[in-house]
Amino acid sequence: MFTAPWFPVNWSLAYNSSQMRIAVQDPLQPSSRPSHVSSVRSLLASLLPICVSAIFFTCAVHLLPVQSTASKRLLIYSIDVEGGQSTLLISPTGASLLVDTGWPGYNGRDAERIRAAMKDAGIARIDDVFITHYHTDHVGGVPELVKRIPVGEFIDHGPNREDSDVTRRDFAAYLKAIGSTPRRSVRPGDTIQIPGLSVLVLAADGEHIASVPGIKPEPNSNCSTERQWPDDPSENARSAGILVTFGKFRFLDLGDLTGAKEVALVCPVNPIPSIDLYLVNHHGMNLSNSRALVNAIHPRVAIMNNGTHKAGSPEAWQTVHNSLGIEDLYMVHTAEGSDAAHNSTEALIANPKGSSMDGAYFKVVAQSNGGFSITNSRTGQTKEYALK
User: Fold this and answer.
1) Distance in Å from the first CA to the final CA of the chain
2) Residue 224: phi, psi to the nearest 5?
3) Residue 88, Cα to own-chain centre: how many angstroms?
4) Most buried of the four, 92, 103, 139, 355, by CB within 10 Å?
């Protein structure tokens, strides 16, 4: 079978079949041309359209963009912002969602760590920045972020609800920093349009969703034994939380949602499906991570974005560690205020005590079939979690 060789084509100059006929026309006049020449010429004329079509088809195939199989995945970076939150998601289409921005100050340290994760992912802008709530360790990094990185839109839960000077200051700094960049507020049940992903808002501004589309809420047997959690007047209880779905893979991030709001979300029935990757609520503080929530969502793997001396409490660590079906609990830092029995093994810690590396992160690569891997940037070691 004839296969045309590959070569670049300037389509504006390419001949059509009739032009090619003219280009190869015998200079002899028809009256002086021998009969066998005329026969050959007729044969060539009949074959040229076929050859031209074959060449153009082959060229067109080579010119089509090739979609790498590596792009058919979801990337999640749990960035070290020293006990704050900043989580970067890159969809299979290259669209990006940044959840929170870390702390202010430190010469833009947290914005630079976000930019390092972006470089690893191969992106130069962030399409959407999702602010879970207005505490300094979540929203404080916005002013430095927008100095360095183009942002398409900011998303949050609406006005600040906390009666404290520091939170009012941080909320005002956030509004000033985003300037004319589009901003919108979401409610439970709203979706965030990230091509290639389903992103559903489960909680926002103290309210929560009753059901997840396609998921039947199930009675939660953990509710009857759950302790009474205190009311929380802070912005933590107003945290906006999301469920991210990529095929069969599910990621849950509820910000700093505290115990009473967690229980209200999953009791007496739980609307949340089983979770593959759980970002441990509130950096692993014992003000959050109720058994009613953690046991109901059955996380396969969890990442705790604690700091060296912030959160990572023994109570929260134990609740997550003991949850049914969990395989691993990763920690961004060794919780130095805790004991060895309530810290994960060093291989599962991005920044262990005594490490010379600063700002190591976890990189998650998820497939639509539900399988995923987690790489510790400090060690370069990757652990696979195959589809069950």
Assistant:
1) 45
2) -65, -25
3) 5
4) 139
Q: Based on the fold, state whether residues 164 and 56 are members of the same structural domain.
A: no
For the entire predicted model, the pTM comes to: 0.82
Same domain membership, residue 59 and residue 204: no
**CA 322/CA 167 separation, integer angstroms:** 35
Q: What whole-number percentage of the chain has pLDDT above 70?
A: 82
Domain end among 28, 63, 98? 63
CA–CA gap between residue 290 and residue 267 (Å, rounded): 11
Structure confidence by residue, pLDDT tens digits, 158-182: 999 999 999 999 999 999 999 999 9
102, 57: one domain:
no
What is the torsion angle, in degrees rounded to the nearest 10, for the CA atoms of residue 111, residue 113, residue 114 and residue 116?
A: 130
Structure tokens at 197: 């992903």
Residue 306 makes CB contacts below 8 A (sequence gap 6+) with 83, 280, 283, 284, 312, 331, 332, 333, 335
Digit-coded pLDDT (tens) for 91-130: 999 999 999 999 999 999 999 999 999 999 999 999 999 9
Range of the domain at 179: 76-385
On whether residue 11 sits in a domain, the answer given is no
CA proximity to 232, closest of 133, 84, 299: 133
- Inform me whether the pLDDT recorded for 89 exceeds 70: yes
* Amino acid at position 345, single letter: T
The residue ranges of DSSP E strands in 169-211, in sequence order, are 183-185, 191-192, 198-204, 207-208
Tell me if 7 is assigned to some domain.
no
Does a structural domain hold residue 111? yes
Length of the chain (residues): 388
Number of domains in the chain: 2
- Return the SS3 of 360: coil
